[in-house]
Amino acid sequence: RDVRFASDPSQKVYELMTRENLITVKENVDQDEAKRLLHKHRIEKLVVVDRKGNCVGLITVKDIEKSQLNPHATKDAQGRLRAAAATSVGDDGFERAERLIDAGVDLL
């Protein structure tokens, strides 16, 4: 919410975000615990942090709602949606395939 109306695209996120009373969770938090914390603290986003306390992601109310609406979506071990891509057999097909693999596509 803090960055929604920011007008300077060069401004750093840490200059905009709320730093006081942050509710954070570890990377291995399950959906039930995330829902409990969101409800308890009446917030829309949880900051996900690694062992060093660095922000590595966000869990939002909208994320949980989408997950509940699409329970059969194919996800990886981290709960991220899997991505598939296609490429051509033409001259640039091999190069495009390499770029897709480098970008982390799950299925080619």
How would you describe the overall organization of this protein?
This protein has 4 helices and 3 strands. By secondary structure, the chain is of the alpha+beta class. The chain folds into 2 domains: 1-72, CBS-domain (Roll), CATH 3.10.580.10; 74-108, no CATH class. A 3-stranded mixed β-sheet has the order 1-2-3. β2 (45-49) and β3 form a beta hairpin. The chain is extended. The two termini are 36 Å apart.
Helix residue percentage:
25-40%
Secondary structure tally: strands: 3
- In the CATH hierarchy, the architecture of the largest domain is Roll
Uncertain parts: none
Largest sheet: 3 strands, mixed
Number of domain units: 2
Level-1 CATH class name of the largest domain: Alpha Beta
CATH domain fold name of the largest domain? CBS-domain
Tally of contiguous helical segments = 4
Mean pLDDT: 88
Order of helices and strands: HEHEEHH
Strand content: 5-15%
**How would you write the strand order of the largest sheet?**
1-2-3
Task: Compute the CA-based radius of gyration.
Answer: 18 Å
Derived from helix and strand composition plus strand pairing, the structural class reads alpha+beta
Outline: extended
Relevant CATH superfamily of the largest domain: CBS-domain
Distance between the termini: 36 Å
Record the SSE blueprint.
Elements: H1 13-16, E1 24-26, H2 31-41, E2 45-49, E3 55-60, H3 61-69, H4 93-102
Parallel strand pairs: 1-2
Antiparallel strand pairs: 2-3
